[in-house]
Amino acid sequence: MPIHCNIDFPRLSEDEMRTIDYAVMRHVFDTHNELGRLCDESVYQRGLLRRLQLAGIEASIEVPVWLTFREFSIQRSLDLVVAGKVIYELKTVAHLLKSHEGQLLEYLYLVNSNRGKLVNFRSESVESRYVNTTFDRSTRQGFQFDQADFTGHESLARLIRELVEDWGTGLSASLYRRAILGSVSGAVDSEQLLPMVAEGQAVGNQRFHLLYSHTGLGVTTYAEASLNNRRDFEKLIGASPLSELYWINIHHHHVRLVTIRKP
Predict the structure, then answer these.
(1) Who is most buried in 53, 57, 207, 218, counting CB within 10 A?
(2) What percent of the chain has pLDDT over 70?
(3) Alpha helix stretches (DSSP H) within the chain
(4) What's the gap between Cα 123 and its chain centre?
(5) Measured at the alpha carbon of residue 76, what is the angle toward residues 177 and 183, in degrees to the nearest 5?
(6) What CA–CA distances, in Å, run from 99 to 106, 183, 222?
(7) Does 188 score more than 80 pLDDT?
(8) What is the DSSP string of 13-38?
């Protein structure tokens, strides 16, 4: 299977989620009261696990999720899973942000779950936030594939289509990028600093992910791949020594491939 976890997560109703969460949050608050708000995340993780297990609540930490595509593979870990049903993402940050919601949402997508919760121990009082989705795996695997503006190798377009068919949409741009680079060149982090020129003068070095020697790779998850987005990439390539860049935008229901050449 392209995505595998040893736990088979069910789709939960709101009432089922709240019943489990009510029991868990009592121990979250007790852990926070006992340890304060200055500990490392791993300390809260293990302290909360101990309390849950002593209370007879099934719980596991660092639950692995494996993603594979062709020869590429990568592992992600779920902070805390309770009752084999609910993912808790634990944080020690100043405030919970949209990016934290996005991280947990990705985990829900990976294991085909629909409800989870963020918990932040760093704040003076425990900060928490539900993260829910109605998208399931089959929904995320249904998308329009647009390569009308792509002039690269057909094998690359086929690879990208297969990747999104395997993993579904909705995941992070960095995850897709690593899989593409790993499948094409075997180097998941082929990042290089290249010199940039503005008005004939050197203006420093810019980081690029290289798919081939003179071809960059840009992977985004914009809600809409607009003309302004394309112009941004055109300016980026125009100031660089690269001859072209393949821009891949992966969003719900729509995957678009665009070749952007130096003017």
Answers:
(1) 218
(2) 98
(3) 14-35, 41-54, 98-111, 137-140, 154-167, 173-184, 227-238
(4) 25
(5) 30
(6) 11, 27, 14
(7) no
(8) PHHHHHHHHHHHHHHHHHHHHHH-S-
